[in-house]
């Protein structure tokens, strides 16, 4: 018997009432993540990996919630009271966590409409990378710098998303300035030499060089080149580097600056 102020608590009676609810909660906390891991292991073989990861998150939460409800019922709490309490809490939580509810709704929308799936390469206004998982409230992408970026699902359904994997071939737009006057035919020959020897360029699609606009003292030239989606960023960096190093208009500028 334990005395706490005016109250007398029978320790054995307390333990007799608590041991089963504690075990039920413990099983829920243990079993939920375990089931999630089991489902996640099947994600690689699944036809829709995003739906599998989303399901894994839901199962984890439901198992833990069910264990909590069973424990409360074992303690003698009326199930109707639990339902009423959960409803009231649900309303309060929904109002307090509107953004999180929006993320859950966004995850469901992504899974149903499939603007992208796991393994596809996408870009948002702020990030670009390969989708590694679609979960209950967020989507994870891996950037070309090997960083994992976690994006709330609500952002992905309200922002503009480019799914680069939908098209196998993309067009690169490169803009580079050239001092006026200049010979376009001469520049085209030099660009052709750069483009034609790069294996990442889809030669069959051809390329195009034109003047985008004219500024005071120089013109902005626009180079359009096609490539496979997976080579997009790498080729863009390579061409920018080669244009600066190989075009005679830039070599002449270097000579003038060094002589002065």
UniProtKB/TrEMBL annotation:
SUPFAM superfamilies: Mechanosensitive channel protein MscS (YggB), transmembrane region, Sm-like ribonucleoproteins
Domain Mechanosensitive ion channel transmembrane helices 2/3: 58-98
Pfam families reported for this sequence: MS_channel_1st (PF21088), MS_channel_2nd (PF00924)
Keywords on record: Cell membrane, Membrane, Transmembrane, Transmembrane helix
Localisation: Cell membrane
Entry's transmembrane regions: 12-32, 53-72, 78-97
Superkingdom of source: Bacteria
Gene3D superfamilies with a match to the protein in the record: 1.10.287.1260, 2.30.30.60
Family indicated by similarity: Belongs to the MscS (TC 1.A.23) family.
Protein's name according to its UniProt entry: Mechanosensitive ion channel protein MscS
UniProt organism field: Dubosiella newyorkensis
Species classification: Bacteria, Bacillati, Bacillota, Erysipelotrichia, Erysipelotrichales
């Amino acid at each position: 018997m334990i005395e706490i102020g005016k109250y007398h608590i029978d320790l054995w009676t307390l333990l007799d009432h608590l041991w089963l609810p504690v075990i039920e909660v413990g099983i829920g906390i243990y079993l939920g993540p375990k089931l999630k891991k089991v489902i996640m292991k099947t994600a690689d073989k699944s036809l829709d990996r995003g739906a599998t990861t989303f399901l894994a998150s839901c199962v984890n939460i439901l198992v833990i919630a069910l264990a909590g409800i069973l424990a409360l019922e074992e303690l003698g709490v009326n199930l109707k009271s639990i339902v009423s309490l959960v409803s009231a809490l649900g309303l309060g939580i929904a109002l307090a966590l509107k953004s999180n509810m929006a993320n859950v709704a966004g995850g469901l929308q992504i899974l149903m409409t499939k603007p992208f799936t796991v393994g596809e390469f996408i870009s948002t206004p702020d990030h670009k990378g390969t989708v590694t998982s679609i979960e209950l409230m967020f989507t994870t992408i891996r950037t070309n710098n090997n960083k994992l970026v976690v994006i709330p699902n609500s952002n992905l359904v309200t922002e503009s998303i480019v799914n680069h994997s939908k098209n196998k071939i993309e067009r690169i737009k490169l803009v580079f300035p050239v001092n006026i006057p200049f010979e376009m035919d001469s520049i085209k020959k030099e660009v052709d030499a750069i483009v034609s020897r790069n294996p990442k360029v889809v030669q069959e699609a051809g390329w195009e060089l034109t003047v985008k606009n004219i500024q005071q003292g120089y013109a902005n030239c626009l180079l359009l080149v096609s490539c496979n989606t997976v080579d997009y960023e790498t080729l863009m960096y390579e061409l920018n580097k080669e244009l600066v190093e190989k075009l005679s208009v830039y070599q002449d500028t270097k000579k003038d600056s060094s002589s002065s």
